[in-house]
Design goal:
By secondary structure, the protein is α/β, with parallel strands linked by helices. It is about 50% helix and about 10% strand. It has 13 helices and 5 strands. Strands 1-2-3-4-5 form a 5-stranded parallel sheet, sandwiched between helices.
């Protein structure tokens, strides 16, 4: 890459113009370049925000839209990140049930109440007495356990054994963390914990792309879309409150982050997500999503009003379509809409 281009690219990344609205404008530029009058759209997670903003900016160009695992249009930036705490609480009943079903491996108890109590006690013990391993620079502490429990909870695949891994990844995490805290970590425990820490970023990166892009670009969009609080006492107060209200995440999602001290302020207000008089949006949502919680999809549904239909699924994990066993009821609604343009007459709760 020529030095001039490298410098220009770095300047652009520092600018305030990395916003969801600008990506939506780029998308419409591609539509025009292709000579298409309208587009249909599927988006998941942050893609639901992108789709809703695109629809707000270019209401006449959307034919059919499906958004899966929605962010709440009224909770952007810092408020969006804080929602991870209650999202994890929504997800926990599935994990407690998993802990009971794998009691002989994870050793956290034989009832849901015991699993929660002992899991929190394990995280607290690791906070007070972190474990250091030669295989990784990351301390095995309470936040390590909380972070990777949350990440693995994104998909039920982490709760299932496979031919190559008869112990599900979540069970291995809890067992290995417990062994490390008790001072009896085996070579298998050490290898698993180090692999989790050392591969967190690498697994999400493409070849020849700087690994920090995985997180830095996400922060850039959050900082560019809405300003975060600048007062450190705001974070201290909210962390303290959320540690009590949502002990599974110990207040971490409410803490100080890159956007708290971002060098530039947003250049524009994001377009308002609201009804446009076209009934053409299908919202899919798992009931127990640890990242974009059910109340986020309900917020998207309220914002779009009668333009949208909400289909919820009695399941956990992030993404209805990427569940290891996708729900037939939800997939049926998706197929009927994308293939034939038929939306359910009213909101649907899939069992």
């Amino acid at each position: 890459m020529p030095p001039l281009l490298r410098a220009a690219s770095w300047h652009w990344l520092r600018s305030p113009y990395i916003t969801t609205a600008n990506v939506a404008r780029d998308m419409d530029g591609m539509r025009r370049a292709l000579g298409e009058r309208t587009v249909s759209y599927y988006g998941i997670s942050w893609g639901t925000r992108l789709g809703s903003i695109y629809r707000a900016l270019f209401p006449q160009t959307i034919d059919r839209m499906v958004i899966d695992s929605s962010v709440d249009p009224d909770k952007q930036g810092y408020d969006d990140f804080r929602s991870f705490s209650f999202a994890m609480e929504d997800r926990w009943p599935d994990l407690a049930k998993f802990g009971v079903g794998n009691a002989g491996t994870v050793h956290l108890g034989t009832t849901a109440r015991q699993v929660r109590k002992n899991y929190l006690a394990l995280a607290d013990k690791l906070d007070r007495h972190p474990v250091r391993l030669a295989e990784t620079k990351a301390p095995i502490n309470g936040n390590f356990l909380r972070l990777f429990t949350w990440q693995l909870s994104y998909n039920d695949a982490a709760l299932l054994p496979t031919a190559g891994a008869p112990v599900p990844p979540m069970a291995q995490l809890w067992q290995s963390a417990g062994d490390a805290a008790a001072g009896r970590a085996t070579s298998a425990d050490r290898a698993f914990l180090a692999g989790m820490a050392n591969d967190l970023v690498a697994h999400g990166s493409l070849a020849n792309v700087p690994q920090d892009n995985l997180f830095s670009i996400g922060w850039a969009f959050s900082c560019g879309d809405q300003a975060w609080p600048r007062d450190v006492t705001t974070y201290a107060r909210n962390v303290a409150a959320d540690r009590v209200a949502y002990p599974l995440t110990a207040g971490a999602p409410a803490n100080f982050a890159p956007c708290s001290a971002w060098a530039v302020q947003p250049v524009e207000r994001a377009p308002e997500v609201k009804p446009i008089g076209k009934r053409n949006v299908l919202i899919l949502q798992n009931d127990r999503d640890p990242s974009t919680p059910l109340r986020g999809a309900q917020g998207m549904r309220r914002a779009m009003g009668s333009d949208a239909v909400l289909v919820t699924v009695d399941a956990g994990g992030h993404g209805v379509l990427i569940h290891p066993k996708p729900n037939a009821c939800a997939i049926g609604a998706l197929d009927a809409y994308f293939s034939a343009g038929k939306l359910p007459a009213a909101d649907v709760a899939c069992s």
